[in-house]
Design brief:
Blueprint lengths: L1 H42 L4 H16 L2 H12 L3 H25 L3 H9 L4 H31 L12 H10 L2 H29 L19 H29 L5 E5 L4 H17 L3 E5 L5 H10 L4 E5 H8 L9 H16 L1 E10 L2 E5 L1 H7 L4 H7 L4 E2 L12 H8 L5 E2 L6 H7 L6 E4 L3 H5 L3 E3 L10 E7 H6 L2 H7 L7 H12 L5 H11 L6
Parallel strand pairs: 1-2, 6-7
Antiparallel strand pairs: 3-10, 4-10, 5-8, 5-9
Helix pairs in contact: 1-4, 1-6, 1-8, 1-9, 2-4, 3-4, 3-11, 4-6, 5-6, 6-8, 7-8, 10-22, 12-13
Length: 529
Amino acid sequence: MNNFIEQLTAKKSEILSLLIEHIELTIVAVLIAVVIGVPLGIVITRNKKLAGGVIGVANLTQAIPSLAILGFLIPIIGIGSAPAITMVVLYSMLPIIKNTYTGITNINPDMLEAAKGLGMTSGQTLRLIKIPLAMPVIMAGIRMAAVTAVGLMTIAAFVGAGGLGYLVFSGIQTVDNNLILFGAIPAAILALLIDFITGKIEDATMPNGIKKSDGTMKVKRNKMSKAKKRVVITATSLAVIVCLGFVIIPKALSKNDKAIVIASKNYTEQLILGNILSEFIKDNTDIDVVEKFNLGGSQVTFNALKSGAVDLYVEYLGTGYVSILNMTEPNSNREEVYDIVKDRFKSDYNLEVLNPLGFNNTYAMAVTQETAEKYNLKTVSDLAKVANELIIGPTIEFPNREDGLIGLEKEYNMKFKDVKAIDGGLRYTALVNNETQVIDAFTTDGLIDKFNLVILEDDKNFFPPYDAVTVVREDTLEKYPELREVIGKLDGKLTEEKMRKLNYEVDINKRDVKTVAIEFLESEGLINN
């Protein structure tokens, strides 16, 4: 409990900042969804064929995984708040459109005939009869979309949009339950708060004599009800405008011609490396740095770099060689792999691969001491003999990579009993709990020491070298030529031992990533104390 309070105190400013980001993103997404969804729901009430098509598309969107939508959006609109808001808007469409359509089409036909008999135009009927009578159902859809949007927006962290998801996924990566709670608890409270606020808006905008979504009747309480209604609507509108201003105006004002975006993937080592680059560049140049850390996996980050949404990040040669360049010929020669990746990245993508940072963070098969003793495991060839009895719990990327499980099983002629992909530090938890018996580890993982795991020798030299290198857009280097020399000062500064120690400080000792990165730079004499 004391540790929880201490960590909460240290993180309170970050939690508040991420909470504000989460609120802004959610409100903007829901507002856009309402502005699009309600009119669209009204339009399709006039054409049943069109209604079937629109609702069908909205249903189909719900069936597409949110991460897949983000993956499709990144090459088109980049990273940050834009793809996150777009994803939530798409997911919010179904309840808003469907409830608007259902609420209007289920109005008693006799009431519509009476309106027609009174000489009302179609516009008057819509404004004075249909919308007021359908309001309970419409608001129920909006409330549902708003509450769901709070949870969906946690995924925004995968594309560098921030929000409470950053804490949740950071906690998952480092097996830190406190961080998970720091993100999850405010998100749950925010969902309840938004449900309460939308309920009040529903009550304020609903005519007297109409049943609300909870089944109670809206009744006129006093002569000031209309005035109060106008006040509530006006206040709500102003609040939305202010929130929009918080999102749009700062982003517009913060645009700086002399700024670069540094990214990282979504695990501890990458967060450390991203912070090292960021702090070092800020200390040695007058270039402004925008940090987009904790993005999704390799393809998300690389696509962001290609699209220009990101200027630089740290990649690994093996990932570039196999996963990005799709090289199928095994190659364990570090110099050759470096030359191939450097040349191809330049010719194919206009990207510059700088010199290695000094450590090779290759894949490794890891098992517990008990499993190693039980099956007498020392090499991957030993593992191949009993793989059909074991469950592997790799990262989500590993089973789909030629330099991962696909190629490994071919090279060693083995097949695991089952594959249960688990991302981040959770795969270590599953391993020590014997839910899985094998994982793919990285040789610089701090969690290897924490759980006293056995690393199996890759006796056939299957895994290519994974030297860490900084990849930068060529147009960025042309604009900021000083970057090449500055980043070059980091060449060879990070050994496997140093990187493992840095990971250990974050993963095991639960220290702040940025603090660990700054202390490393200071200890190496790269920045001033």
